[in-house]
Amino acid sequence: MKCPAMTTSFQIDSNPPRVRAHTPGGVVDLPALWLRERSQDSSHLDARTRQRLFDPHQLPDDLRLVSAQAIDSRHVQLGFSDQYAGTFDLEAIAGDLAPADHLPERIAWSGALDLARVRLDWTGLGTSAALRAAAECFLVHGFIVLDNVPTQSESILEVASAFGHVRETNFGRYFEVYSRPDSNDLAYRPVHLGPHTDNPYREPVPGIQLLHCLTNGTTGGLSTLVDSLSVIEQLRREDPEGIRLLAETPVQFRFIDQDTELAEHRTIIQHDAMQRITGVHYSPRLDYLPLMPETQMRRFQRARRRLGELFVDSRYEIRFRLDDGQLMMFDNARILHGRTSFDPGEGYRHLQGCYIDIDGPRSLYRRIGGG
Question: Quick one: which of 62, 129, 323, 330 is 20 to 30 A from 337 by CA?
Answer without folding.
Answer: 129
